[in-house]
């Protein structure tokens, strides 16, 4: 915005980063019926693992050595930042968590459901060599020469109220993958004892949005699109197009920031994010409420000051500090006072999003007016306040920003 205009800003959220893949297959799969679990010699479940396989009580326990041939290996963790597939040191390993596996041979023979538990680093390994599968009457886990061999992996969610499963097995939870239809698993289908190994599997959880309760204002203070004549919410809930500045807006391909039902990914796709691919069965999801908020300047400055005073902080330390500062601020100023705005809009029928913020007055949260600004300076007390309207107040455009 030019220096001759009253400085007003929106948020630093990048519209292209906002997309929601409502992954229908993440509903955990139902296992094929099987007899009571047979004991596998040398692989009986330890006392502390018995009874943990609640989703499939009759699953067969087996545990292999890390990256042994004739098995399946992967990582289980709670994703704390960045991409769901990365192995960041900030991730929290899932320890002692139950992971399930089932496979179908190229001849169409279906295995019973096996389960194992993760180690202290969140790693899991299934021993599926003949010595294991023969004892329980399961078909051989041989990848060589079986191009249609399929495997699926899923797991127990330790706290469904708090966490969502965002990735399991190759990418989609419970979805069968093959040697040619996969994104991140590594298949070794060499014949003989030095083969039939799948590595780089996943079981990844993420915290559900706002389960902590302080990422938005109380619902009574949410801003919705209102009819200019009646003052009531608009029929479709959509805002007029106030421009790009200070808004969250769907971007075009390849960013594809929108809301959709996820059903599949192209083989060989990058596993870092889901893509909207109607050719794979994805469908746009309209009417899904998007709730977006940002902090007021005072709280943001407190968080900045803590970061500056604590170099080398961890994600968990930052999170604990955020909660402490926000809790103390709300005690003094009231519930939701730490949030500048909470705006709500439903996704459009095509899954696209347009959510505008009014923005707060000031060049930044630390600068009131632009350098050498002579006109349209902020009135005393306006710095950091939420603007009165979505429209600009001095004729400046929100479109080119």
From TrEMBL:
Keyword Signal set for record: yes
Annotated signal sequence range: 1-33
Swiss-Prot/TrEMBL keywords: Signal
Protein name: Uncharacterized protein
């Amino acid at each position: 915005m030019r220096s001759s205009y009253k400085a007003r800003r929106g948020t630093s959220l990048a519209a292209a980063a906002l997309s929601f893949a409502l992954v229908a297959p993440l509903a955990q799969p139902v296992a094929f019926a099987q007899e009571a679990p047979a004991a596998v010699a040398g692989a009986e479940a330890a006392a502390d693992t018995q009874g943990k396989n609640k989703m499939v009580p009759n699953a067969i326990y087996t545990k292999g050595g890390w990256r042994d041939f004739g098995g399946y290996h992967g990582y289980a963790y709670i994703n704390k930042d960045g991409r769901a597939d990365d192995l960041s040191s900030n991730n929290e390993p899932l320890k002692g968590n139950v992971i399930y596996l089932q496979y179908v041979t190229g001849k169409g023979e279906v295995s019973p459901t096996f389960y194992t538990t993760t180690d202290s680093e969140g790693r899991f390994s299934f021993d599926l060599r003949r010595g294991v599968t023969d004892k329980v009457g399961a078909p051989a886990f041989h990848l060589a020469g079986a191009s249609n061999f399929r495997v699926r992996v899923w797991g127990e969610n330790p706290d469904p109220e708090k966490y969502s499963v965002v990735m399991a097995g190759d990418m989609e939870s419970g979805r069968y993958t093959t040697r040619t239809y996969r994104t991140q698993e590594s298949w070794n289908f060499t014949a003989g004892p030095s083969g039939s190994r799948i590595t780089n599997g996943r079981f990844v959880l993420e915290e559900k949005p706002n389960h902590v309760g302080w990422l938005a204002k109380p619902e009574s203070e949410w801003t919705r699109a209102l009819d200019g004549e009646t003052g009531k919410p608009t029929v479709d809930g959509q805002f007029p197009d106030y421009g790009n500045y200070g808004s969250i807006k769907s971007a075009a391909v390849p960013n594809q920031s929108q809301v959709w039902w996820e059903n599949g990914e192209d083989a060989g796709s990058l596993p870092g994010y889901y893509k909207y691919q109607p050719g794979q069965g994805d469908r746009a999801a309209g009417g899904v409420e998007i709730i977006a908020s940002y902090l007021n300047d005072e709280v943001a400055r407190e968080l900045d000051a803590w970061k500056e005073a604590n170099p080398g902080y961890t994600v968990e330390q930052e999170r604990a500090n955020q909660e402490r500062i926000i809790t103390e601020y709300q005690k003094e100023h009231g519930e939701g006072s730490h949030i500048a705005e909470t705006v709500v809009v439903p996704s459009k029928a095509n899954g696209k999003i347009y959510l505008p913020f009014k923005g707060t007055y000031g060049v930044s949260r630390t600068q009131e007016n632009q350098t050498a600004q002579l006109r349209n300076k902020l009135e005393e007390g306006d710095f950091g306040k939420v603007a009165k309207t979505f429209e600009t107040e001095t004729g400046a455009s929100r479109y080119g920003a």
